């Protein structure tokens, strides 16, 4: 049975450390290179980014397990990756532990895959080879946030969109008329990527106009697991979000990319009920879903 740890407490680093220790027997790098994929959607909005203490907790856990060569990777959408590394305190973290950095917007090598535009024409998209490389042990570390187009952004979307070169990020994200296409594109690109360890730092989440302009949620939780889809399913539950409304995660589940059946996920630590805080969904997301559900019962969206 798939295991996901769930921890609640008043210290971000301790929460993540405990979440990792609860699933420690599941974590096996097998000699691969650990790549910690953090999230800087914007280099100017700290609430949109992975807190440096969350990354520090993962680095310290890995070093205690004997890992020395660790890379922090990101490809910021707004403001530049280098600025994010600097302004969010990652340079100091790197100096302290001798970490490497990788700007996924400017990779040395990449893999070309294809996304679909809202006009249904295929479009070439470049993915950073570091994130595609099977020798990379990819660790997704991000905070739970609502999202104006797909509902929520958790560990899967962190890796998918962060792996796309900057010039192509805007090709993947469509206009309002192409939101269904975005869900498919996320599913399609994940087929070329992998996540070996998924970590949600829910000490402070984001609700409302996410993933950049939302407001904070004082949540004080952390979740971790080696099945990223199971972690994201638990993430939707503790956010009080209807999982059936999150299409790209359902696409991944339908085609066997992970476990999203709660009956098949063993929760270690806290229960979902003790960690659930309903997040306010993005108004744009709700508006779109209501338009789609016209003439149907849309009460589950309005409840959020």
Summarize the structure.
By secondary structure, this protein is of the alpha/beta class. The chain is 35% helix and 24% strand. Strands 4-3-2-7-10-11-1-12 form an eight-stranded mixed β-sheet, sandwiched between helices.
Report on this structure.
The protein has 13 helices and twelve strands. It has 304 residues and is α/β, with parallel strands linked by helices. The chain has a single domain, classed as LarA, N-terminal domain (Rossmann fold). It has an eight-stranded mixed beta sheet, with helices on both faces. The protein has a two-stranded antiparallel ribbon with strand order 5-6. Strands 8-9 form a two-stranded antiparallel ribbon. α1 (12-22) crosses α2 and α8 runs parallel beside α10 (247-254). The protein is globular. Residues 297-304 have low confidence and may be disordered.
Assess the beta-strand content as a share of residues.
15-25%
Give the termini distance in whole angstroms.
31 Å
- CATH topology (fold) name: Rossmann fold
Mean pLDDT: 93
Radius of gyration: 18 Å
Shape: globular
Structural class: alpha/beta
The major β-sheet equals:
8 strands, mixed
* Major β-sheet strand ordering: 4-3-2-7-10-11-1-12
CATH C-level name: Alpha Beta
Number of domains: 1
Number of helices, counting only DSSP H or I runs of 4 residues or more: 13
Low-confidence stretches: 297-304
CATH architecture assignment? 3-Layer(aba) Sandwich
Spell out the CATH superfamily: LarA, N-terminal domain
**DSSP strand count:** 12
- What level of helicity do the residues show? 25-40%
String of helices and strands: EHEHEHHEEEHEEEHHHEEHHEHHH
